[in-house]
Amino acid sequence: MFARTRYRGRHRAVRPILRRNRTAAAASNGKRTRLVIGAAGAVAVLALMPVASAYAAGGSLFPRAVQVRPPADASTSTFSSSLFATYCTGSRDCVAGGSYTDSHGRNQGFVATESHGAWSRGSKVLLPPSAAAQPNASVNGLACTSARNCVAVGSFAHNASNDDWALVAKEVNGKWGRGFVPRPPANANGVVSYLDAVACTPTGFCAAVGGYTDTAGHFQAMALTKPAGKSWQRAVEIKMPAGSAANPYGTPNGVACTAVGKCVTAGSYRAGGSGTPLQAMGAILSGGRWHNAVRITPPANALHGSFAYLDAVTCRSGKCIAVGGYYFGTNAFRAMWVPESNGHFGSGKEIIKAPANAAPVANTTLYGISCPSSGPCVAAGNYDNTAGHQFAMYMTLSSGRWTASALRPPLGASAGSFERSLANAVSCTGTEHCTIVGWYNDTLGRTRSEAASTG
Q1: CA–CA distance, 134 with 137 (Å, rounded to integer)
Q2: Which pTM was predicted?
């Protein structure tokens, strides 16, 4: 069995190395010469607007989150469900996806819809006939070309060894079709593949990224595209940076497209050398091909030889920002961001902000970010609070300044020993019009899906 971890939680980027239980309960435990643009240049493009009123005065942007109910066949004993992805087509009109445990103990993928601020009960994603009896399915990424016309990507187990195959499912006029397995790269061995993120343009061009095992059994990064009005093409390999390990564990975690055939992905890979930890990387789609990935230099205070990764990317006006995290000390983790412009990645920049009730070493990290056409950028992630518990948070970027706030979980969330929550993804359609999704533990320690919307 080739195992990997795809949990949403701290150090989620190590998923190519260790397999995760896709339920949120498991998450709670545990090239060419490049002109590098400066941080100020990226922020100037991505945050020209003034700070929005809600948090300019130090207030909370998001209200208390609400529970998003999983499908009707969900287990009534474990209540294990989590949301990993969301995409909004209007204020408080969104779709979200993730995984849940059904009444037979099987981990399934599901989607739920928010309409005018109210969330529907989730619907199970129908899997291909090749799915194993224990499918361990998960929706990891979502994108829409218009309301009720979306695509979901993820993975499911296809054998008793729990090996994954990539999954794509399409929604047309509000109806989700059965998922299918896209064609992996020509050098795939057919054992493992998965998709972690997808992005589409309004015209219908889409790109998705993930990973697969090649004929040598090495874990490589892959990407596939869908031209407007056509089918998904065969995936291709994204070559990892020069000096990467023979088995690079290439893991693109996020993707964003600025135009048809022009996209950016960000993630992690393993550099050469015994015991080398994962490093952050980015790659560009342009001119009809994916260019070789490049290593992203971590912030100047990064612990030498330590772990760093990027987990999400968003673009506005042709400029992009990727977010993730890195070690700046022994057992000390911090969120970081990276600017990108015209195919050129800058170095990593630390984000020192943390919510008011953060522990002295807050261990902040970011898993999602969205920069709407107007208004500040909003990022989603988690931190350690003063009780030492992992807690959901969101950050905002405006006029070059980051803020950080705790995301209040739904009523009924645990405030004791079971207290845990995490914000996995965020989607914004305009100033203060955002939705954030993730999971939390209730008073019995059961993991439930949550969402919060502004506007």
Answers
A1: 8
A2: 0.90
